[in-house]
Amino acid sequence: MITDPIADYLTRIRNAVKANHRIVEIPASNLKREITKILFEKGYILNYKFEDDKIPAVIKIALKYHPVTKIPAINELKRVSSPGLRRYCSSKELPRVLNGLGIAIISTSKGLITDKEARELKVGGEIICYVS
User: Fold this and answer.
1) Are 61 and 48 in contact (CB under 8 A)?
2) Which pTM was predicted?
């Protein structure tokens, strides 16, 4: 049993990037699916596939690297809010990751969105993680 599935998700991606793997498999959940979609939309991963026919359901993520230098697109994944200490902020206090070069994934009443989208919608929420 995993006590913090989001931390496990981020750790699996972090470890796969450090080991220069092309594909990583992660047990699926709805929250992990939404995080994966955001990472894909913002260009941090190459592609993803939800395999619901397997038991348990799996998310396959193709990691993104620079074609010549082989530098990964994801430099840092950091879990901010944890089950033991939840981090919430208002729309005015939303963090900027690397002065806007990275993203913060935030769980709001509008669903899972990035910090930039939350500022535009003027909503706050729980800060899930930082990606840069």
Assistant:
1) yes
2) 0.94
Q: Go through the chain and tell me how many residues it has.
A: 132
Cβ contact 54:104 at 8 Å: no
Compute, in degrees rounded to 10, the torsion defined by CA atoms 56, 131, 65, 71: -140
> How would you classify the pairing of strands 88-89 and 77-79?
unpaired
Task: Kindly report the three-state secondary structure assignment for every residue of 81-131.
Answer: CCCCCCCEECHHHCCCHHHHCCEEEEEECCEEEEHHHHHHHCCCEEEEEEE
**pLDDT values of the chain reduced to their tens digit, one per residue, 132 residues:** 789 999 999 999 999 999 999 999 999 999 999 999 999 999 999 999 999 988 889 999 999 999 999 999 999 999 999 999 999 999 999 999 999 899 999 999 999 999 999 999 999 999 999 999
Which of these, 14, 33, 46, 47, lies nearest to 112 by C-alpha position?
33
